[in-house]
Amino acid sequence: MLTRLRVKGFKNLVDVDVRFGPFTCIAGPNGVGKSNLFDAILFLGDLSRRSLLEAVTGVRGETRSAEALRVFSRWPGGAADTMSLVADMLVAPSVVDDLGQVAAPSITFLRYSVEIRARMQGDGPIPLLEVASESLDYVRKSELREALPFAARCRSWLESVFRGRRTSPFISTEKRESETVVRVHEDSGHQGRAKVVKAEGLGRTVLSTLTTAETPTALAALQEMQSWQLLQLEPARLRMPDEMTAKPRLGPDGQGLAATLNRLLKANGRGSDDAIRARLANRLQELVEDVNDVWVDRDEKRELFTAMARSRDGVEFRARDLSDGTLRFLALAVLHEDPAWGGRVRSTSLPRLLTRSGQRALP
């Protein structure tokens, strides 16, 4: 869970500090940087899996490497050549790497920071982007109430999400006489043989390379950052049936709803999981009263999955017949139920807020 983000030098976010809770509403007039704030979050997540240049060219509206400098803050007569991002986050108490190895981070409240520098290379059109500094540190338990003001009175919750102990950073940047290096410290805290990387010309973050259980805390931070997504659920995508061979994971635009719902309802391998099906229906009823049941139609001949719903009076509807609001609510309910979802749709605040919209479930 992202709890705080500080940004300097990214687009029009010259110096921004935002704290996040289980539900945070960003509002303001046009041009103040609302969309850029979300771009900064996605950009930071991209830095955990891609090179600096790839992450920059993946920012909304930037597709050419030669335009990379446009992501840095600009003003009349000048522009920034460095940007910095600092993120405080709560991470999972256990992680699984690509090889299936399970490990536990040393501490679950972390602070990751990175500074990126841009400089032109001679007369070439593409700037050189490099990591000027990078760190992964811990947040002290004594800082909890200040760092998480929304939970200041929820002592039991704070104790459940804050685990472990640490007295030294996991990644640090050190300036030597002739060079700057990024050092990866052992999770054990012992002064063993650390990984040392020269910062000059470093084209990707060191964190993005720590993908094994040998560095569990860094891996937990990495996976947390990679889970940050911008949901833009499109009704047209949500209405589409899925091929039986489709990846059963809901995409940011809503693609894969039927396949994901089918996976959840077949989770026990013995047919439809009635408990999950009932929970999905009950959650939808909190939002749209007309829904009585949800399931997946399996068209074996055409090899397609289609999301289905039933109204209180027994009328069955395919996804293409449901309202936009109902489809979006169904997608959020699926995300809430899906243990494989990497995002953070885990708060009861969201359904309670959505209930006020007055959406009807079925046409």
Top keywords for this entry?
single chain; about 375 residues; alpha+beta; Rossmann fold; 2 domains; four-stranded antiparallel beta sheet; 10 helices; 16 strands; disordered C terminus
Describe this structure in words.
The chain is α+β, with helices and mostly antiparallel strands. The model is unreliable at 343-363 (pLDDT under 50). Strands 2-1-5-8-9 form a 5-stranded antiparallel β-sheet. Strands 13, 14, 15 and 16 form a 4-stranded antiparallel β-sheet that branches. A 3-stranded antiparallel β-sheet has the order 10-11-12, with no helix packed on it. 34% of the residues are buried. The protein has 2 domains: 2-226, no CATH class; 235-355, Rossmann fold. It starts with a strand and ends in an 8-residue tail after the last helix. It has 10 helices and 16 strands.
List SSEs in N-to-C order: EEHHEEEEEEEHHEEEHHEHHEEEHH
Main sheet summary: 5 strands, antiparallel
Number of strands: 16
Supply the number of structural domains. Answer: 2
Q: Estimate the helix proportion, in percent.
A: 10-25%
Radius of gyration: 23 Å
Instruction: Sum up the overall morphology in one term.
Output: globular
Strand content: 15-25%
Mean pLDDT: 85
From the N-terminal CA to the C-terminal CA, the straight-line distance is: 36 Å
Classify the secondary structure makeup into a structural class.
alpha+beta
Spatial sequence of strands, sheet with the most strands? 2-1-5-8-9
The total of helices stands at: 10
